[in-house]
Records
---
Amino acid sequence: MSHADHPAQPGGGDAGHQQAARHDPVYDHLHASAEFAELRRRYRAFVLPATVAFLSWYLLYVVMSNWAAGFMSTQVLGNINIALVFGLLQFVTTFLIAYLYSRYSAARLDPLAGELEERFVETGATGSRGGKH
Amino acid sequence: MDHQVLTTVLFLSVVALTVAITVRASRSTSGTSDFYAGGRSFTGFQNGLAIGGDYMSAASFLGITGIIALAGYDGFLYSIGFLVAWLVALLLVAEMLRNSGRYTMADQLAFRMKQKPVRMAAATSTVVVSIFYLLAQMVGAGTLVALLLGVDSQTVKNLVILGVGMLMIFYVTVGGMKGTTWVQIVKAVLLMTGSALIVVLVLAKFDFNLSELLGAAASNSGKGEAFLEPGLKYGADLTSKLDFLSLGIALVLGTAGLPHILIRFYTVPTARDARKSVLWAIGIIGTFYLFTLVLGFGAAALLNTGDLDASGNLAAPKLAEEVGGGAGSTGGAILLALIAAVAFATILAVVAGLTLTSSASVAHDVYNNVYRKGEATEQEEIKVTRIAAGVIGLIAILLAIPAQSLNIAFLVALAFAVAASANLPTIVLNMFWRRFNTRGALWSIYGGLISAVGLVFFSPVMSGAETSLITGADFAWFPLSNPGIVSIPLGFLLGIIGSLTTREPAAEDRYTELEVRALTGAGAEQATSH
């Protein structure tokens, strides 16, 4: 197949939208299914709060480094102060959120996504850009 | 043995190794899927290593070590921001991009928008970000090599820049994504092994007691406790505190908008593998940034930091020499040469990734999909990529030679700010907001790009201060050297306002397909070879 990404098809939209012109109705069916709504809900239920949490936690660190230098300089153990512990905790939380997301997505997202994708394959649709090249 | 001879031998070995890898990879490369995406056949672990190799640049290895060695605790922000940023990529970008795109950053926008204008815009910001990043690496290579060979001659630096430029053109035109990926994997292994070795040697000097290391760093720095506390570099007044905040925001939001990182998500078979690669990358990169903490404070504790260059870029190799037995010792010479060669490999792997990304965008987005309306054959497109790699390489060489007075960390921070202002807003809005459309995307990309670059132009970085690039003139009215705090919200805001001021039913309609594909992988690009 040629590398033409998106030949416009009759009735498939205006000239500026060549790429999206091959919108297959199967996507509408999948989109309307209860499983898809559930998949999207589960995905957002994890990533949106997690994103708010880690960005706030990180910004708190930056702001405290700036405007709470006295507190940050408190020594905890020998020469190790709160600033260093706070910085290292950013590493810990990053590893932790990454680990939790990998567990969550494997258990709660992948099975649903796999089921929907299988349904898509069964309809014989190949997507906007076809399968193997 | 003389360390200069040893260094030269190791540098040439790195070059020979990477050239051999590239030639080998070229034998299994045929179509565009191989050339741009490595056949989408890398495993999550391999791609995780390659992401590490693509991401941990000379600015991280040499730059962060140097900043911590000179400015103490404040340099740690870079390590933290560069790592936390990966959560944005993991949670919001990697999998969805893998499912909805093909070769470039523009693909996922063109999916539902008017593709000519959005591809032009995305290609423009891809090339701009990549060139800033390229300049940083090439300038770093010139300085590093000249100083390590003990020759402070402009001709040598220029020759090194020329050499690095020729090499990166070679990697990309011959090896494509497969060659580039293997170069990055080898580099990641070298960098992790080399820096782990130095970290162990440094810690051994302090009986593996972190507190003792910090105490020695504080007293040797001559700044006492303040060296271990925030504020030494950025705490003087409100302006510098805002600069610190602005830098922090750009670092954490920039990563997931860097085009050379984004296209790495296309090199694996499925979105699950893209997720796995980011998880591996977080582990590898996180470990590396913990190393930089020890390297930086180790350099402060063990070296006479007054002897270092002003940027601190040589702190890491000098530290290696010190823990190997000191200047003049065989152990010192070997470790110095080893770490210098690792730094050189680091630079080569990063420039290869950047050149591939920007030339792929020129060929795939501009040449094929805009100029040829998507009708070029794969062979034509690859041919144009090779030409573009040559042209971009040449431009980078020509710009890097006069840019040698620029600070490396500044160039990289600028690339992050542009990526966070111009690229991240469109990626996030496109994936999460049905109402987003072509006008919003264009306003966001061009607005973020122009404001980020423009604010730097009118900042003390360019004029009006002692350390400015242009001395004897003052046209600075923006007080911060990091534009992110203004340009990133502006990028998001323009995307939202642009979209709300017009309706584009086609883009909204096709969001349905985009959303299903992004979340389920239905209809996503398949791997071509295993």
Note: Chain A touches chain B through 72 residues (CB under 8 Å).
---
Amino acid sequence: MVTELGHFALILALAVALVQTVVPLVGAHRRWPGWMAVAEPAANAQFLLVGFSFAALTHAFVTSDFSLRLVTENSHSLKPMLYKITGVWGNHEGSMLLWILILALFGASAAWFGGALPPTLRARVLAVQGGIGLAFLAFLIFTSNPFLRLAVPPLDGRDLNPLLQDPGLAFHPPFLYLGYVGLSMAFSFAVAALIEGRVDAAWGRWVRPWTLAAWVFLTIGIALGSWWAYYELGWGGFWFWDPVENASFMPWLIAAALLHSAVVVEKRESLKSWTILLAIVAFGFSLIGAFITRSGIITSVHAFATDPERGVFLLAITVLFMGGALTLFAARAEALSSRGVFSMISRESMLVLNNILLAVAALVVFVGTVWPLVSELAFDRKLSVGAPFFNMAFTPFFVALGLALPIGAMMPWKRGRPGRVLRRLLPAMALAVAVLALVYAIQTERSALGPVGLMLGTWLVAGAATDLWARTGKSGAGRLFRLQRSDYGRTLAHAGLGVTIAGIAGLLAWESEDIRVMQEGDTLTLAGYDITLEGVTRVQGPNYVSTTGTVRLARDGAAIATLTPEKRFYPVARMPTTEAGIDNGILRDVYVVIGDPQEGGGWAFRTYVKPLANWIWGGAILMALGGALSLSDRRYRVAAGARRVAAEGVPAE
Amino acid sequence: MRQRDPAGCVLRRTFRALAAVVAAMRASTHPTLLALALMAGPALAVQPDEILADPQLEERARELSRGLRCLVCRNESIDDSNAELARDLRLLVRERLVAGDTDDEVIDFVTDRYGEYVLLTPRTGGTNWVLWGAGPAMLILGLGIGLVFLRRRASGTEEALSPEEEERLKRILDR
């Protein structure tokens, strides 16, 4: 009964989305206030209907209603409650419903917080958002309906893929979708502005928080996925340049570029048409990402043929929205004249450089991702483009970006004197070079990766600190507490990038590894750590059996920790997983994995010491935190155009 | 060449689940594949018994393995893959190294048998110049367009304020 109501609500949401698209668009064109006003209740209704539908599906999963096909295929009555709930989005249909729910949430929040927008712009933004919702609701209902019943319900389900039964991955998709779909707001604002034919500083101010929020969510989502891969896949890899990962990374890069170019629109009324283009392309990459992950075309050209309906539908959505928006852009971009004048050396020009580097980096990832497909279809040449290519082709852009970042962040608007900026950054530069020399002298390998990565990290962190300090001006440290939150946000995010770069370089350069057969009681020594396999036991979990090793970690005779690496087997899904035993540290992780029992007794056993591993995700947390801090800055909370409240000697909240 | 190996590639399994391609999920519960999964038994990437006695040769073998693709997996190197076929390839690489091949000879040996598809770093020749040249070409193009734009901005003049704006500015300043 609840299920049927959910199904019905979903179909009703499709009808509401149609109204939300057409009526406000006509109303805004004809200047009919009544028609424009339809947008807001329609957005709210759509959110409520999709929300109810999602709740109904969740209810079916929680109560293990195996008469629903989706529940049977992705759940099991013995599964822990957390994973019954997260199982809702652990499959194509449910995750698409979550995607649409988030889309409706963003639409509704534009209605809630968009009170200060000009009425025609607001109506158009909501209409475009409704149009996206319409397309995806149609996709869900006609090609991947989650509410289909089974004529003969089985006694129990087939269980969720055990690799997905993990907290890190349980919350990875919702964050990722918040990011992907959040970019739809930037898209809707861009298309609405193109229809209006007007882009000004106020537009930049409205678009930036949405893009920032989307970018923060994407950062968290990508970091969660990478962290999960690190501890779950059994050898501590954290990034594979897989098409599915690239699908999330490209929008992240473009969103980062968009964030920075929107600053120029907001502060200097320049780069307008470029910013609009970025807003369109950013969401375009989200759509392409959905197409890549859900059609399976990049994995194999042949997989496409197994389920062409979905792939073709998603491709049609992508082509429709991108084609439409880009045509509109081509027709209207001329009207968006830029006003600000600035010299070749200025904050503006450095932000242009930032945009070029980020956009080209994203395009390199894109070309590498689709090249196997293009090459096979067009030139009949079957090849692979893997991690070594991406590492080689992508890294130079990020090194250049990292080198330029602290200088750009401190460059004044309009006209800057490079000598002045570089003089202020001299201590940071000296520190970075000192780190380079020191690390190079200490390390035993000849690889440049570690020293250069740490130098870049130091340069970024010290540069961010210099930037913050420069903000205090002559009044000194006391003013640190009165700076705007966005100043802290920027500093944190830039420093976070440095921490992540240092972490990646450190891990890749100095990881040590040991593979051997261990008997119970054996001890091995790796990078100064003594690792003893004390015992191996069989443990029965709620829906799996586990081979659990007890491993003692010690250094110079002093015990540090006891680790319990596991090898699990999920009988329903008939799949094994590895749970690594990890001792987390600030400077290194010790990572142990237990493998198969060997013929002559003992277990296959792998040990890694991974220097700076946690910095990768620590940096990502800093970036997300920086973004969130910027988002909470008072100029986004106070209505646009309102006068700033005079400082009263209180810390800026 | 393309065989299904449900127990082999962690990455492929995962991303398949993530991408939520339901068709593939159905396949993994197919009875014959189930049997395969049980028989194959999961193994971790490089096994202790594969490691060569000579640490230098072993290091070269690892380096080569990282650049070769597991043919039944998705985007995984044979160094990381758990599939049987990847193990066979790892052993093959080590066999050639022990026989005295240089790194290039090993790569040629493997590509002769399995085709260009096995290389994770695509070759530079032929149509692949598009792939390799895309980054530098776009960078030069981007920098060129950016430079033209910046020059135009630098030589432009700031728009003067309209009389109403002048009036408003005066009022604000006088306040």
Note: Residues 639-653 of chain A have pLDDT under 50 and may be disordered.
